[in-house]
């Protein structure tokens, strides 16, 4: 969670990951805290987005986008949904907001000659090429997906097929409307719509659908609002995810404001609320201020020091936590960090 630079004047407000029927602050949730249950909750919330098929789509998304006019619709929506540098992905997605009829035509628009085509990976050129395979939607395209190396972030060889992604475009000259569906066999691992339209002061991008690892399903709804003035640009993120099997709510808000060209202030409020307790990660931090507070069921419980390469968590009184308590707090912090890499994403623009 290191900050390298702050290249532009930016005020960003983010809301990410709210799961189940209600969001909550300190007042909601049970009176008792179950550390192991909280750890399990966080693991389940992440697992819905970590299927091999979803990983393949996220890694191969840029190559798919290359075929489809280089649009951010595919590659950046895949990263935003999966929580891989979601802030940077969200900013890229803001570029698809229609500015005019001519600009809109280049946002996605699957080339007419590609409709109904299935694309396969050519290992020799490391690109997708059209094939004679059938099954692609008549109003869209299909790309076969393959196992990827999680370190090298490329397909492994020999190729191992892991399903496919169907992409259909129902946009108009004034709106974006793209559906993305990742499937293997009879299981749909990811299915979402990307929409965008202009407003008087900017535009709105929406991503809504569900993700599944085959066992745990999560419904999600992400809105990105772009507001522009002559001197400043504001991005607002609102990301809600519902995981019915855990009855869990996560509410993640972040407001970030530039202080000067080399520093910023971010105000965080991350709430995990469910049957195992209410955990809240709050505080303000930046280049020169990197300490957060954790509250459990309304009471100060621990502090998080972000100055090192890894977060250091200690009890509110400075004493070590029990192993179960520390594991649950680490799971909360890890989920926050993995739900978008907001600092690096926003400050590396």
Mind explaining what this structure looks like?
The chain is an alpha+beta fold and 349 residues long. The protein has helices at 35-47, 52-67, 72-82, 86-94, 101-105, 323-338, 342-347; strands at 11-16, 117-122, 127-130, 140-146, 148-149, 154-155, 161-169, 175-184, 187-199, 202-212, 217-228, 233-242, 249-260, 263-274, 277-286, 291-296, 299-305, 312-315. A 16-stranded mixed sheet has the order 3-2-4-7-8-9-10-11-12-1-13-14-15-16-17-18, covered by helices on one side. It has a two-stranded antiparallel sheet with strand order 5-6. A hairpin with a 4-residue loop joins β10 (202-212) and β11 (217-228). Residues 1-24, 100-106 and 341-349 have low confidence and may be disordered.
Topology, pairings included?
Blueprint: E1 11-16, H1 35-47, H2 52-67, H3 72-82, H4 86-94, H5 101-105, E2 117-122, E3 127-130, E4 140-146, E5 148-149, E6 154-155, E7 161-169, E8 175-184, E9 187-199, E10 202-212, E11 217-228, E12 233-242, E13 249-260, E14 263-274, E15 277-286, E16 291-296, E17 299-305, E18 312-315, H6 323-338, H7 342-347
Parallel strand pairs: 1-12, 2-4
Antiparallel strand pairs: 1-13, 2-3, 4-7, 5-6, 7-8, 8-9, 9-10, 10-11, 11-12, 13-14, 14-15, 15-16, 16-17, 17-18
Helix pairs in contact: 1-6, 2-3, 3-4
């Amino acid at each position: 969670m290191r900050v390298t630079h702050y290249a532009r004047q930016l005020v960003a407000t983010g809301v990410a990951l709210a799961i189940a029927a209600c969001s909550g602050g300190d007042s909601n949730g049970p009176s008792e805290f179950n550390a192991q249950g909280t750890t399990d909750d966080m693991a389940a919330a992440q697992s819905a987005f970590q299927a091999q098929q979803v990983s393949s789509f996220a890694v191969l998304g840029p190559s798919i986008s290359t075929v489809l006019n280089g649009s951010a619709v595919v590659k950046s929506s895949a990263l935003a949904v999966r929580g891989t540098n979601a802030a940077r992905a969200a900013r890229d997605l803001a570029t698809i907001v229609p500015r005019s009829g001519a600009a809109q035509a280049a946002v996605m628009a699957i080339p007419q000659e590609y409709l109904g085509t299935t694309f396969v990976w050519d290992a020799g050129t490391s690109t997708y090429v059209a094939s004679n395979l059938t099954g692609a939607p008549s109003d869209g395209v299909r790309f076969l997906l393959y196992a990827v190396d999680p370190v090298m972030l490329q397909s492994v060889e020999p190729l191992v097929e892991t399903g496919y992604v169907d992409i259909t475009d129902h946009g108009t000259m004034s709106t974006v409307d793209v559906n993305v569906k990742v499937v293997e066999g009879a299981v749909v691992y990811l299915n979402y719509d990307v929409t965008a339209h202009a407003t008087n002061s900017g535009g709105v991008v929406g991503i809504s659908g569900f993700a599944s690892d085959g066992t745990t399903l999560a419904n999600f709804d992400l809105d990105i609002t772009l507001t522009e003035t002559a001197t400043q640009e504001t991005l607002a993120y609102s990301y809600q995810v519902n995981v019915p099997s855990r009855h869990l709510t996560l509410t993640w808000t972040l407001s970030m404001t530039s202080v000067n060209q080399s520093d910023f202030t971010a105000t965080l409020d991350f709430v995990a609320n469910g049957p195992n307790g209410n955990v809240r990660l709050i505080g303000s931090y930046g280049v020169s201020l990197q300490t957060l507070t954790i509250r459990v069921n309304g009471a100060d419980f621990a502090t998080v020091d972000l100055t090192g390469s890894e977060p250091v968590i200690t009890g509110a009184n400075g004493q070590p936590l029990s192993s179960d308590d520390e594991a649950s707090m680490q799971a909360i912090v890890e989920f926050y960090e993995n739900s978008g890499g907001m600092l690096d994403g926003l400050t590396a623009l």
